[in-house]
Amino acid sequence: MIEDHRAPAVTHMVWYKIGAADETAPHSGIAHFLEHLMFQGTHSLAPGEFSATVEALGGNDNAFTSWDYTAYFQRVAADRLDVMMRMEADRMRGLNLTEEDVATERQVILEERSQRTDSDPGSLMGEQMRAAQFLNHPYGRPIIGWRQEMEQLSRQDALDFYKANYAPNNATVVVAGDVTPEEVKALAEEFYGPLAPSENVTRKARPQEPPQLAERLMMTDDRVSQPSLSRSYLAPERDPGNQRQAAALTILAEYLGGNPTTALMARKMQFEDPVAVYTGAAYDGTSVDDTTFGLYAVPLPGKSLADVEAALDKVLADFLAQGIDADDFARIKTQIRAADIYARDSSRGLAQTYGESLTVGLSIQDVQDWPDILQSITPDEVMAAAQSVLDRKASVTTWLSQTEEAAQ
Amino acid sequence: MIEDHRAPAVTHMVWYKIGAADETAPHSGIAHFLEHLMFQGTHSLAPGEFSATVEALGGNDNAFTSWDYTAYFQRVAADRLDVMMRMEADRMRGLNLTEEDVATERQVILEERSQRTDSDPGSLMGEQMRAAQFLNHPYGRPIIGWRQEMEQLSRQDALDFYKANYAPNNATVVVAGDVTPEEVKALAEEFYGPLAPSENVTRKARPQEPPQLAERLMMTDDRVSQPSLSRSYLAPERDPGNQRQAAALTILAEYLGGNPTTALMARKMQFEDPVAVYTGAAYDGTSVDDTTFGLYAVPLPGKSLADVEAALDKVLADFLAQGIDADDFARIKTQIRAADIYARDSSRGLAQTYGESLTVGLSIQDVQDWPDILQSITPDEVMAAAQSVLDRKASVTTWLSQTEEAAQ
Fold it and tell me: Quick check: B207 and A149 CB within 8 A?
């Protein structure tokens, strides 16, 4: 519960500790499909009535699925939190699916896949890249699902997944806004309290990665507007009570490619000896299992992906040899502190942060410690993390080229 | 039943329609582990007594696990078939495992992995290559298992897999040798007849591949005695009643790299313009799901893997442009016919062929039709199969280099 009385509104979120990486084969996409189906009817609500009710109250609602969680949220006037809890509690236990609703919604997710993935060469390559990055772990699977498996997802698959995973003892409720803890507790007891827990709903251990022994290069050409180079490395995630390496990687990503003009990759590859028009690095350690550390670059017109990769490799090699610049390091620490302070200003953002973190197994203490841990990281820790993670044997590099036709 | 009265011996095989590709995550290696554990005791036999009995009868026995099957065989004097059937029927239903036996045998399979895989860079790379070839299908999993999952395999995992999959209605018995069909039928009815079938033991559909959109290149160096280049392409398997494309691929593999001195790759890459000391192609369509078509080459001393790959790509491009040489095609047909006739001479080999084929879903008719289908394949069918399968987007290419240290 995050109290915030600046506006008479409340954000209500229910986070289930279940996501695409918890699906069993060959049902990829079922976690996301079920997220859609949760807006169909229950024994008390007609299909679509949930969102219509939120809208009628002047609020908005949505839901999202990741590899590690499925979450539902609404933002409404603070005095309507009771209605949200009543409806979320209702669909936590009372989902009612007809074959027809399932068939219709299956068309919706297939269309979503067509639009967001199948018609976007960059997105398709990202999907193939993840599948090549993870040799055994289900993080290699697309959240939306492989099309041929999505086509087979049935009402029974959805109900089985729902019954096995949706339960009050597998969910976290996060409320942020213009209410008091006492009010929230009373409402939660009224609406969620009566729901009986389920047995065996804790997250099962997923298949883990074997040692990765050989870098993978993937090359394709397509009608893309921009050619690009992507590289991802297998990287550790934040662990409860043990977040320093992930914090060091968070700083490393900022240092290498956080800021589009001042980060190391931008300075070296866009300005000093230009081969790229855009560079970036990405790392998010908030996950259940080992995740990825990503680098990205778009070549300057006239420069090849080979030029870009050679420049990137030189930036990394020089960085590993020469270490961190003290001024840049201090600047990044300041940026991170500022970003954290801005983030605290959004109760909805904080709700998201707590909800996600608790759902992947971190504690409230871990979340509260995180800003100080980031500030306490030393250059040596960043270099040690870089030496450990920037291991080509555990990496995938993708060259997404333009077809000759598209380049003309 | 394959009658063969040339020697007073009999081969007895039991093939279970269960293999490594039917394992559920994260239990890779359980099919193979169970194969080992089947030589532990039953309620009637002490641990090791099975093989000791075979040996005391002057016979030999063994077992093997693939992605699609687990099979047990013995070769003994023909008048001891009854003993083999009694013991196989016994362990089909009566396996008895102690925690201690399981712990000991787990050490055995881990040691087997150490010896055959972990200490062999080529084998390790083959494993990583398969994992990169299959983005979703469990053929990407090593039969022996990923080490970290093998270490966790428990007695209960083995018993669960055994109970779910070992049953008379999920097995094929093949007998070859100096017995009559009537004798075999009577013995089978006596020993296997009383075993009650299990419910739900038919093979479940496995996760299938999504479209593969980008070739993968994998590079590593290690202390190998020989550097090598491997490429595998996703390829269709033999389907019941529909074996022509697989037959064309079988001929294609022979044409490209079957014979170490006369095949196309050998002629072009070892003799006309030498870059390699060894070349080969491999395809075996006897599987449940899509499999691989493989090419392999070892560079001449002084030639790089890049030289070898360039030469290989030229061989393939010229082949696809120019088509098949009629004399070579005729020669290969003759070789295949001869190999088939030789194979018919071995009743044990025939038992293997029928056992494997029936276990992956082919019929006796499919097996009997196969030699004639191979002979009836036209050059056009081979070229069509080559055009379809030699698609770099569905391929993985591996460069296994020598470390500088090892090369000295």
Answer: yes
Q: Which residues on chain B are in Cβ contact (under 8 Å) with A28?
A: 136, 207
Give the model's confidence band at B198: pLDDT under 50 very low, under 70 low, under 90 confident, else very high. Answer: very high
Query: For the segment A221-259, what is each residue's pLDDT rounded down to a tens digit?
Result: 887 878 999 999 999 999 999 999 999 999 999 999 998
Predicted confidence at residue B293, as pLDDT, reads: 98
Token digits for A110? 């297939």
| Residue in the structure block whose two tokens are 């062929």 | B353
At A33-60, the pLDDT tens digits run: 999 999 999 999 999 999 999 999 999 9
Task: Please tell me the predicted confidence (pLDDT) of residue B348.
Answer: 87
Tell me the two tokens of residue A37.
Answer: 């189906």
CA B379, CA B387: separation in Å to the nearest integer?
A: 12
pLDDT band at residue A342 under the 50/70/90 scheme: confident
- Residue from the list A147, A212, A216 with its beta carbon closest to the beta carbon of B216: A216
d(Cα B107, Cα B130) in Å, to the nearest integer?
Answer: 25
C-alpha A216/C-alpha A396 separation (Å) is: 5
Element (H, E) at B3: strand B2-3
List the single residue in B125, B141, B215 with the smallest CB-CB distance to A214.
B125
Give the residue numbers of B marked as catalytic: 35
Q: What average pLDDT does range B323-349 have in this prediction?
A: 90
Of A196, A144, A207, whose CA–CA distance to A170 is shortest?
Answer: A196
Minimum Cα–Cα distance from A212: chain B residue:
B128
Chain B residue whose CA is closest to A26: B207
Residues of A in contact with B206 (CB under 8 A): 25-26
Identify whether the C-beta of residue B258 lies closer than 8 Å to the C-beta of residue B374. no
Among B220, B401, B403, which Cα is nearest to B304's?
Answer: B401
User: What is the per-residue pLDDT across A364-392, written as a single tens digit (0 to 9) for each?
Assistant: 999 999 999 999 999 999 999 999 999 99
Q: Is A346 left (phi over 0), alpha (psi -120 to 50) or beta?
A: beta
Distance between CA A357 and CA A370 in Å, rounded? 11
Q: What does the alpha-carbon distance between residue A115 and residue B341 come to, in Å, rounded to a whole number?
A: 55
d(CA B34, CA B71): 11
* Interface predicted TM-score (ipTM) over 0.95: no
Give the 3-state secondary structure of residue B72.
Answer: strand
- Number of Cβ atoms within 10 Å of the Cβ of A313: 13
Show which residues on chain A lie within 8 Å of chain B, measured between beta carbons. Answer: 24-26, 28, 124-125, 127-129, 131-132, 135-136, 138, 140-141, 146-149, 205-208, 210, 212-220, 393, 398
> Which of B24, B213, B218 is the closest to A128 by Cβ?
B213
Q: What is the DSSP letter of B205?
A: P
Output the six-digit token pair for B274: 């030498």
Rg of chain B over Cα atoms, rounded to whole angstroms, equals: 23
> How much is the pLDDT for A222?
80
Contact state of A210 with B124 under an 8 Å Cβ cutoff: no
**Banded pLDDT at B406 (limits 50, 70, 90):** low
Beta-carbon count within 10 A of B250 CB: 26
What local confidence, expressed as pLDDT, does residue B294 receive?
Answer: 98
% of chain B exceeding 90 in pLDDT? 91
CA B91 to chain centre: 24
Question: Measured at the alpha carbon of residue A226, what is the angle toward residues A225 and A229, in degrees to the nearest 5?
Answer: 150
- Beta strands per DSSP E along B209-256: 215-222, 228-235
**Chain B: closest CA distance from residue A246 (Å):** 23
Cα(B10)–Cα(B84) distance, rounded to whole angstroms? 10
Q: How many CA atoms lie within 13 A of B154 on its CB side?
A: 4
- Contact by Cβ (8 Å): A31, A162: no
Contacts with A325 (C-beta within 8 Å, 6 or more apart), sequence order: none
* Cβ–Cβ below 8 Å for A146 and B136: yes
Q: Which of B339, B320, B307, B348 is nearest to B7 (CA)?
A: B348
